[in-house]
Design a protein that fits this description.
34% of the residues lie in helices and 31% in strands. With 263 residues, the protein is α+β, with helices and mostly antiparallel strands. This is GNAT family N-acetyltransferase.
Length: 263
């Protein structure tokens, strides 16, 4: 495997029709990451974030990519690091299962398309009696879940998120009760991550805060992205109400807790 240099990222980006947002984040150099290729033709590609999130793309016949994945998985086991592998290809998924079957579990998720017409024609939500604030360091320090550790994992640092990412929160009596942030962002896309205080669920807060996030995306020529586990019916239906349509299933592989060091 060879490491692809950043000067080749724009050309690779043009060849990829569909990928997780973090792939575009790497290619746009918004977050730090590594791109591996099986050879100089870039026939098969492996994307890696610093957090241990991976994506395979291209010709699934590449033994070099599978061998590299096996080595990275072994490293994650030895060093107790994260290993999460995204596959949008049935061929890749079958090969990963065949080669790494004893060492990974899998789950299926949906990736949605954003339909701006459906969003504009949605049933509008009433205003809420809660303060909506753009997320800064103070809000991160008092976050429900998206704390400094979260941004260090996905963005490299909180400062990088504050410089390159964005998010909004709702407050009630100085307490953060709902948040929507960009878990990943590129020059074109922004993937939404949301959390709502369990004591305030059922009030439409998640939908309201996501609308703020989407509106900011549209103002800045960004396409909002929505993914969820296939059994997360609440997220599925919320996304549908907000213009996210045409769910496409993909597979995520993650390190089994019962693995042995024989990969």
């Amino acid at each position: 495997m060879i490491k692809v240099t950043a000067e080749n990222f724009p050309g690779i980006k043009e060849t990829i029709k569909s990928a997780p947002t973090f792939v575009y984040s790497i290619l746009d150099q918004v977050i730090e990451g590594t791109v591996y290729a099986d050879d100089a033709s870039f026939r098969s590609l492996l994307f890696q974030t610093k957090a241990g999130i991976y994506f395979v793309h291209g010709d699934s016949s590449s033994e070099k990519v599978i061998s590299k994945l096996a080595a990275l998985l072994k490293e994650s086991i030895v060093e107790s690091k994260r290993f999460t592998l995204f596959s949008y290809s049935d061929e890749w998924s079958a090969k990963i299962e065949q080669r790494l079957n004893n060492y990974v579990n899998k789950l299926e998720r949906y990736n949605f398309s954003f339909d701006i017409n459906a969003y504009n024609n949605r049933e509008k939500r009433d205003s809420l009696d809660y303060e909506c604030i753009k997320i800064k360091q103070h809000q991160i320090d008092h976050s429900l879940e998206f704390d400094n550790q979260y941004y260090e994992e996905y963005w490299g640092s909180t400062d990088d998120f504050l410089e390159k990412g964005f998010g909004f929160c709702l407050q009630h009596e100085n307490k953060i009760i709902s948040e929507a942030v960009s878990i990943f962002k590129s020059h074109q896309f922004a993937e939404i991550d949301i959390i709502t205080d369990s004591n305030y669920r059922g009030k439409g807060l998640a939908g309201f805060i996501v609308e703020k996030f989407i509106d900011d995306c549209l103002l800045n020529d960004l396409q909002p992205c929505w993914d969820c586990d296939i059994d997360n019916h609440g997220s599925y239906h919320l996304g549908a109400k907000l213009g996210f349509t045409n769910p496409v299933k993909y597979t995520v592989f993650y390190k089994s807790t019962k693995v042995k060091l024989t990969v």
